């Protein structure tokens, strides 16, 4: 088991089985490490990690992790690695770009691939959306995207959502695409965020969505202006009361609650459609990710620390490695 693991990413495929990716103390880099739990986070076991740095400069690097099931998983950021034997072996996948977002559901993985690594600005190479089966590194290009565009992949059931925004000064020009059946044909949906905001989406079901609009205006302190919900797969939206501050990009939705990670105070939750917001997790560190594998069981990474909840976010406990 890696000692002193600083967690960067977490992924669960059931309420019992999950993995974390991070950096641990080691004598010879890369010190990238992965740990696995099969008892809901009570105990963890170290498994092999890709030969890549967490913060690589010029070489392979990974900071995010997603598993489809107990065998098939992907580690990614500036590089993409795949395993099909539960992490015993990893193989690099030639995607020719930086994987900004990757999610897996119903046996398929979907990814937004930027044309350049995160360190290259401005990027002049086109990005693209790709998809493949979870048990294979082969993939199909779904669409090309402009070089200055960033995106997020959100999956639930058979539904696939893509949020897109352009990095054009203060104007993001956000948009939302949906494929209801998981096909490579997408339809444009309504987007309530304005041109100075970046959208961050979460799905509670195939058609029930929560959307947070994060401001790109530095003068506004990057405070978000809007929180919206949709029960029609993004065809129509209802504006709800937003948290007092939205300074972060972590959003999760369950059938009974929506959680918004804040880079200053922790996680805020609403259980009544936005009428009231309360603090679910208090943290001075930035909330980098929040997700739920069921209505009760959830995980978050804040300040490179893993937290687990088994009571729908009423209480959280830190996991020590």
Outline the structure in words.
This protein is mostly beta strands and 321 residues long. A hairpin with a 5-residue loop joins strand 1 and strand 2 (18-23). The chain has a domain at 96-319: Neuraminidase (6 Propeller), CATH 2.120.10.80. A four-stranded antiparallel β-sheet has the order 1-2-3-4, with no helix packed on it. A four-stranded antiparallel β-sheet has the order 5-6-7-8, with no helix packed on it. The termini are close together. The radius of gyration is 18 Å and the shape is globular. It contains no helices and 28 strands.
Give the key terms.
321 residues; mainly beta; Neuraminidase; 4-stranded antiparallel sheet
Overall, the morphology is globular
Beta-strand percent range = over 45%
Structural class of the secondary elements?
mainly beta
End-to-end separation in angstroms reads: 8 Å
Largest sheet: 4 strands, antiparallel
**Which radius of gyration do the C-alpha atoms yield?**
18 Å
Walk me through the topology:
Layout: E1 6-12, E2 18-23, E3 32-37, E4 45-47, E5 64-67, E6 73-76, E7 80-83, E8 91-93, E9 98-105, E10 108-114, E11 127-133, E12 140-145, E13 149-156, E14 159-166, E15 175-179, E16 187-189, E17 197-203, E18 209-215, E19 226-230, E20 238-240, E21 251-254, E22 257-262, E23 266-270, E24 278-282, E25 287-292, E26 298-302, E27 305-309, E28 317-319
Quick take:
The protein is an all-beta fold and 321 residues long. The chain contains no helices and 28 strands.
């Amino acid at each position: 088991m890696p000692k002193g693991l600083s967690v960067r990413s977490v992924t669960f495929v059931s309420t019992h089985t999950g993995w974390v990716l991070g950096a641990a103390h080691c004598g010879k880099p890369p010190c990238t490490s992965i740990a696995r739990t099969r008892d809901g986070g009570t105990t963890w076991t170290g498994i092999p990690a890709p030969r890549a740095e967490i913060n690589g400069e010029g070489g392979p690097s990974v900071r995010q992790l997603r598993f489809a099931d107990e065998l098939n998983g992907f580690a990614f950021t500036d590089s993409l690695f795949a395993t099909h034997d539960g992490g015993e072996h990893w193989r690099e996948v030639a995607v020719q770009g930086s994987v900004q977002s990757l999610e897996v559901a119903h046996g398929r993985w979907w990814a937004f691939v930027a044309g350049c690594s995160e360190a290259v600005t401005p990027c002049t190479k086109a990005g693209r959306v790709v998809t493949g089966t979870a048990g294979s590194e082969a993939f199909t290009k779904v669409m090309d995207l402009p070089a200055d565009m960033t995106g997020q992949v959100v999956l639930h059931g058979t539904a696939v959502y893509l949020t897109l925004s352009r990095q054009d000064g203060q104007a993001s020009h956000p948009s939302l695409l949906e494929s209801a059946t998981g096909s490579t044909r997408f339809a444009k949906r309504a987007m309530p965020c304005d041109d100075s905001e970046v959208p961050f989406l979460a799905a509670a079901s195939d058609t029930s969505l929560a959307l947070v609009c994060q401001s790109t205006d530095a003068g506004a302190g990057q405070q978000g202006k809007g929180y919206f919900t949709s029960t029609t797969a993004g065809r129509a939206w209802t504006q709800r009361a937003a948290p007092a501050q939205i300074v972060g990009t972590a959003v999760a939705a369950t059938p009974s609650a929506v959680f918004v990670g804040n880079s200053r105070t922790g996680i805020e939750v609403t259980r009544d459609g936005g009428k009231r917001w309360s603090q679910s997790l208090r943290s001075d560190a930035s909330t980098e990710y929040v997700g739920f594998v069921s209505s009760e069981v959830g995980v978050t990474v804040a300040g490179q620390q893993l937290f687990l909840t088994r009571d729908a976010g009423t209480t959280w406990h830190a996991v020590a490695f």
